[in-house]
Amino acid sequence: MLVKSSIEDFSRILGSSSPAPGGGSVAALSGALGADLVSMVCSLSIGKEDYEPFHNELAEVLADAQTLSKGLLERIDLDAKAFNGVMAAFKMAKETEEEKLSRKEAIQKGFKEAVLSPLGIARECLDVLKLSEKLLGKSNSNALSDLGVASQQAYAGLEGAVMNVKINIPSIKDEVFNTEISSEITNIIEDGRKIKDGIYKYVYENIG
Amino acid sequence: MLVKSSIEDFSRILGSSSPAPGGGSVAALSGALGADLVSMVCSLSIGKEDYEPFHNELAEVLADAQTLSKGLLERIDLDAKAFNGVMAAFKMAKETEEEKLSRKEAIQKGFKEAVLSPLGIARECLDVLKLSEKLLGKSNSNALSDLGVASQQAYAGLEGAVMNVKINIPSIKDEVFNTEISSEITNIIEDGRKIKDGIYKYVYENIG
């Protein structure tokens, strides 16, 4: 499992000529790092007198951030698997008509998985952004840069995941599926950009 | 060393109530992941007929990306150390006038380190962006989303590192130092944003 490897080893495997893990797994990791920074900012605020009025909200955000981090870490491996699934389908036998049909179906199934995997990453990165937003003005101001980085990572993960959705859509022959997914990623990008811009504005106005 | 820990463990340590590692280390990791994806895209292009004319350039970018990845991985630990240096200075004895002076000097030295560390990260993330830009139209088009994610990660690392510079500047009493650093980060952000916008435009126009 990739999440069991050291950062150093993951970096080396990522940089190699093997196409998986690639951008999708990195987007998931980026979202997880964002979620972890949200957790850290909550932990540096809970129990501090200044943030006492927000205690319950902070505890809720912390719990949600921990769940998102866990889910996104799992998606590092899942995304690499989704990619390898497409590759395996392409390598299937294609001698008989029956084999050709099975292979075609497997390829289509593989590409749908290779779209749904980063779509899930994009959704969860949006959730991390929403959590970061909740902390504005309600969390330790000494950790404001950490909150800023949390949103950077979540937003980078979101856009990166969307790019991975987009590159695979043209290979899918199910137009209903494609229209639905395209509409969802447009909304995710729009919502994410709005939240990210709001957070950056707050951070840059209140930092330094 | 943090880079020797598993992704899972790093995620857990990051999310804990300890303020280090924090946003600075994450920015460095983000830049390293960007550099690794640049390496991967180079490796997926070198030796392919379509990209034969760019072979030498691709080999150069690959070597530079590997160097940047190594440097940015080291900065994960260095940034956590820089933060701990400030904390240690604050805990120094302050009974005698001499102790007070030593402590004050150590705090100032610590804060300068806590500014120079993320500044170095921001510079190298900008270098990763410049490498990504060099690959546009000269690398494997199947890996275009990976190139997009590379630039996302490098840019997120750049802006995240800049936020970490900004939060520490007000604690430094050396105005010449502060003016110089502020001017450099303004340039880094401006250059980075321009390159990132160009890459996104290319990726979104040529993807899917």
Rounded to the nearest angstrom, the radius of gyration of chain A is 20 Å
The most extensive interface between chains reads:
A-B, 64 and 64 residues
| Approximate strand percentage of chain A | under 5%
Distance between the termini of chain A: 41 Å
> What class do helices, strands and sheet pairing of chain A give?
mainly alpha
Measured as a percent range, the helix fraction of chain A is over 70%
Oligomer: homodimer
Q: Which overall shape of chain A is indicated by the principal axes computed on the Cα atoms?
A: elongated
What is shown here, in short?
The structure is a homodimer of 208-residue chains. Chain A is an all-alpha fold.
Topology:
Two copies of one chain form a homodimer.
Chain A: H1 7-15, H2 23-43, H3 55-90, H4 97-134, H5 144-168, H6 175-206
Helix pairs in contact in A: 2-3, 2-4, 2-5, 3-4, 4-5, 4-6, 5-6
Explain this structure:
The structure is a homodimer of 208-residue chains. Chain A has 208 residues and is mainly α. In chain A, 77% of the residues lie in helices and 0% in strands. Chain A is built from six helices and no strands. In chain A, α2 (23-43) runs parallel beside α4 (97-134), α4 (97-134) packs parallel to α6 (175-206) and α5 runs antiparallel to α6. The radius of gyration of chain A is 20 Å and the shape is elongated. The first copy, chain A, starts with 6 loop residues before the first helix and ends with a helix. The model of chain A has no long low-confidence stretch (mean pLDDT 97). The interface between A and B is large, with 64 and 64 residues.
